[in-house]
């Protein structure tokens, strides 16, 4: 299990007896926080008293592959100049927990010994100053550590730390390149690796075609049985479904062999494939593997990161695309894609159907067709502004379809952004938001805000309070 280090700050001034009490308190607090976590443990570290000990524990956290972040708390006063070298060396996300061991003051017995030991209100302000002076991006949680509110905030930090742990060193595959002449899906791949750890590389679609050709009849039959168990098969063209089964098997083998967490394709580069991958990718996305169409590596990587953050929560997280509007009555957007909408949003058991595409010049591909359950969520786009990356996060409602769409052979998601379509769409466009995005009904704007803060990424938020004009 991944873990968070619990680091308690103090100094030598208080003597061994006080430091022993501080250590006992820290162990107890770390154990209680650890019991409240669902995806990580919280591991106590010895109380740090000087610059060398601080540097040592920060280096230890940075080098430990199982450590995804640190919780730092000042039990006493801890002069902040001691922290400079360690904080500069720390390579893991940090949560500054502004708390104290006791929930209430012992009014009848409080004396200066108690004050000297329990002075987090004093020590954490000193520590906070040096973090701000150094420009350390961190989460700050205040309140008694035993409260459910504080424990919930630590769990949210842990979710983000796990996502950043995936992000560092994440490998992203592009089958083909960015769609020709399209601007918003492109980006600086070298800068993406410098900033976020994403190693984005091109792979020839022919390599995948060779792997598809090597899929056995037996393996394809096994995948077909899986499809029959999970979905309604609403087609007689089982060979087209089998073709997608072979694509999925080959894709999963490729992703495993190359340790890929996210990938893209484009219908402009399908040499050796009979169909555009549809059902295959939909089924893969449901497992939290990042994907985006048309070479949009940023959205594919973002999907993988947000899926990691959302693990264990209710709802779904996946790639989606803005498509078309119903501007009558209460304006609503029909969001979809040619094929690749994840079944995590389905309101009922999806159906496998086979229909021609009006683009790409390939055979009619099998795909999942379904409507989506109403829910609240966020739409998140990442764009490259040339000198910086930007995240755009919009509060979004999935609503019931306005009417049946019997001739539309794709997954159908009806969206209504906050505060309404007119303002929400205008603000999104003004911020440079892409037509590709990640929709999540598991995460909220606070999650995206924390991700942006810890990665030092510019963030534009769109919500019920948004008014036009909205800043670029």
Automatic annotation (TrEMBL):
The lineage of its organism: Bacteria, Bacillati, Bacillota, Clostridia, Candidatus Protoclostridium. Residues 171-312 form the L-arabinose isomerase central domain. Keywords: Arabinose catabolism, Carbohydrate metabolism, Isomerase, Manganese, Metal-binding. Residues 316-458 form the L-arabinose isomerase C-terminal domain. One of its GO terms (molecular function) is L-arabinose isomerase activity. Its EC number is 5.3.1.4. One of its GO terms (biological process) is L-arabinose catabolic process to D-xylulose 5-phosphate. It is an enzyme of class 5 (isomerase). This is L-arabinose isomerase. InterPro entries: Ara_Isoase_C, AraA_central, AraA_N, AraA_N_sf, Fuc/Ara_isomerase_C, Fucose_isomerase_N/cen_sf, Lara_isomerase. The gene is araA. Residues 3-165 form the L-arabinose isomerase N-terminal domain. Coiled coil: none annotated. GO terms for cellular component: cytosol.
